[in-house]
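One-letter codes give the sequence; the integers encode the fold. A sample entry reads:
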Amino acid sequence: MSLTAHFVDDEWKLQKRILNFCLIENHKGETIGREIKTCLREWGIEKVFTITLDNASSNDGAITYLQRKLAARGGLVYGEKYLQMRCCAHILNLIVNEGIKEQHASIESIRNAIRYIRSSPQRIKKFKECIEAELIESKSLVCLDVPTRWNSTYLMLEHAEKFEKAFDRLYDQETDFFRWFGEDSGGKKKVGPPTALDWQHVRLFIDFLRIFYETTLCFSSSLHVTSNKCFHEIASINSQLTSWSHNNSELLGTMACSMKAKYDKYWGPVDKFNLLILVAIVLDPRYKLDYLSWCLEDVYDKEVATSMTSFMKFTLETLYKFYSKEISEFVEKTKKEKANADSKSDVEKYLAEDPVDVEDENFDILAWWKLNGSKYRILSPVARDVFGIPVSTVASESCFSTGGCMVDLYRSSLSPKMAEALICTQSWLYPSKQIFEELEFDQFDSSDKIVNGIFTL
């Protein structure tokens, strides 16, 4: 189990640290929850804001266990309702897989053609000769995907599409190529070779999947704030799927309808996701309440937008009151504000000001709050914790990739404690190093190695 802490430090820099990388007895929810509680106690962490983890049913059991244990000793920052943050990258993975699982014929034909090329050095050499003959300029070559990982399938198709003419030339020159698509050892004929229609479908798949691939990258960053971007991406996906479901292309329409059904299961009703991601939009000085209301009306309807906007204002005020009690140096100041009827709270002052007019995509939201923190002395700690929430478990998954490097064939006798020490020490010595960004995204999978998700403490 990997336990990773995410927080915004006193200099308003987003930080992440691997706290624990330890063995657990089994994957039952209570076992995972008990192990997390033990890790928190060892670190002296008494309060938990949110816990981000994937959709495994055992994780739901872990959350139930932690809600009970943490609430008993006052360890929940904003009640148990918003403790669990489901991994958005994992949900998106489920949505996309639902769309492409029945559209596999064209993808399988490309996959088989690549398998043929990569099956021997001689075939790779021949394919490179075909690329040169077709005057195709590319520094990369075809890559093979892992069929259960749609993101790697996207990368495979994106690479392969560039070499369509080289594949055609190979067909003409290699008679052995067609025998490759004959019956396999099990008597089943391989799908392929790719036809002109298959390549047409591939180009459609590439355009279709690119949006979800880029969204997954946005969700997966652990060096930049993601909580304030999350609902923008969810709303955009809803809009795209609704539009595509009415597309004239039968292939695109079918995929979009299947994905929309899965989308509605996880992100349909507004209460399906952690509402702190809506608070993050309000605390983004470029947007605030009016923009949130517009987004909600676009995704749902005016009635939902009105009620949820009011509820988000109430939630922000509730957080403000909680933090005003927790921050001892401001308690007296808060009492004086309550005594003065004309005095405004940080929430009222913040919402009363016009949104910041900034069009720069690289707007540094933490830098803005660092600059304006003295103006909102109690609201700024709220913003600090909300912006520290990660919306994916990628940072935790990267721990397992690190573990594979640490405990290789030559170090397989390392004890679990020693492996944990090496992995955690690297995280603390090189905190700005994000393994995920250094490796190809298709090396990670939300559903295969991960036992438990990333945790925001």
